[in-house]
Design goal:
Length: 404
């Protein structure tokens, strides 16, 4: 359907602009009149319209900016500012170019009568959880609270992500630096000893096994190092594409949960997100079946999501929530016991929020343990690599000294 750009005057004399879809210019004028807008200029949109550019999938917005935007919309609406005007204000004030484009497009869609959740769904920067929460808030008449809760959830997620990143930054730096130093030693320094090693071989004195492996590794990296880098990049790209498929995500989510220490953190994080979102939705009066469908998308783990969806099917058959979840084995027994008691006492919403808070404290403790384990393990790996190079270089010299 053709699109028309317009400049119009509102009933209170304010100027408004945007894009409207219509079969022809006459229909566009009638549509503006139906929105109590007096057209000043209406013309067929041609060429590239920056304000209504559809975002490529690769573009995104940080969780911090997303949380701040949703929180601001909620605050404006709480103070009596209509949704359309709130979007207009934030679109004008937005400093992030991607968010500015998105807010402008959402404002135009809402101005044409599109529900905000459907308008947001057109843009890839919003994840399924955010869209589900906004959809539930729109249908349940608690949009302001849904936006506020979603913003709080995103802030907590970014905070946890920051803690994980900060905890892994130093070990990752050590590992990368150690690998670079080892490669430099093998490629730059080992070849300088080849003439010495050749003389030793010609003299009838064989080379130790570690030295032979070291020389072979050095020759391979010097001859085919660039091919190795291309192969690693290609395998990395193929792995990322495979991980985006349904089967890939299913397998990876199962593997992640079994990783020592780190798997427990990912597991508890998924359970915490599920409990917090489900508790929030139940506290706002969302029926449990629909709340489970929405909260299942918040886990970030396909296996736990499937278990939650199965429990949703069983609840529709008259069973309790704790029964199907406990059978899956993906929710810790302590959490299942609390959920079971909460169902009997009709306090599931408050208990779920409490479980989320307790689980997040446990995650922080596990992060500390993980950091204390990773740092010495990283040093051991780096030390082993450097030791391998030194042993390979020095063993022939020690053998030669012993022979003399």
């Amino acid at each position: 359907m053709p699109q028309f750009t317009y400049i119009a005057r509102t009933t209170d004399g304010q100027m408004a602009n945007g894009v409207i879809q219509a079969d022809d210019r006459r229909e566009a004028l009638l549509s503006l009149a139906g929105q109590a807008l007096t057209p000043v200029k209406v013309q067929l949109k041609t060429g590239f319209d920056f304000a209504n550019w559809k975002l490529p999938l690769r573009q995104s917005v940080s969780g911090e900016i997303m949380a701040g935007t949703l929180s601001q919309i909620s605050e404006l609406m709480d103070n009596g500012v209509p949704l359309l005007e709130s979007l207009e204000i934030l679109a004008t004030q937005a400093t992030n170019p991607v968010m500015k484009i998105v807010l402008t497009a959402i404002r135009d869609d809402v101005a044409q009568g599109v529900n905000i959740d459907k308008a947001m769904a057109k843009h890839s920067i919003f994840d399924e959880l955010t869209l589900s929460m906004v959809r539930a808030g729109t249908e349940g008449a608690f949009l302001e609270d849904a936006l506020k809760r979603t913003a709080m959830f995103l802030e907590r997620r970014e905070e946890l992500k920051g803690k994980v990143t900060g905890a892994l930054a130093y070990p990752a730096f050590l590992l990368v630096a150690g690998i670079i130093v080892t490669v430099v030693l093998i490629v730059v320094f080992v070849p300088k000893f080849e003439s010495l090693f050749e003389r030793l071989e010609k003299s009838g004195q064989g080379l130790p096994g570690p030295t032979i492996v070291l020389l072979g590794t050095s020759d391979f990296l010097m001859a085919y190092g660039w091919l190795l880098l291309i192969a690693i990049a290609g395998m990395g790209f193929a792995f990322v594409q495979w991980a985006k498929t349904q089967s890939g995500r299913w397998i990876l989510d199962g593997v992640r949960l079994k990783i020592p220490v780190f798997g427990a953190i990912l597991h508890n994080s998924a359970v915490s997100r599920f409990c917090r979102v489900l508790g929030t939705l139940l506290a706002n009066g969302v029926p449990i079946v629909k709340a489970l469908q929405i909260s299942s998308t918040s886990t970030g783990n396909k296996r736990l999501e499937q278990a939650i969806n199965k429990s949703c099917d069983n609840i529709q058959s008259g069973e309790t929530l704790s029964g199907p979840l406990s059978v899956s084995g993906l929710v810790p027994p302590s959490v299942m016991a609390m959920i079971n008691v909460a169902e009997r006492s009709n306090s599931l919403d408050t208990v779920l929020i409490r479980i989320a808070d307790q689980t997040e404290k446990k995650i922080e403790q596990q992060l500390g343990t993980m950091v204390r384990l990773i740092e010495p393990l990283t040093l051991v790996v780096i030390g082993g690599l450097v030791l391998f190079v030194l042993v390979g270089l020095l063993l022939p010299i020690f053998d030669m000294s012993a022979a003399i």
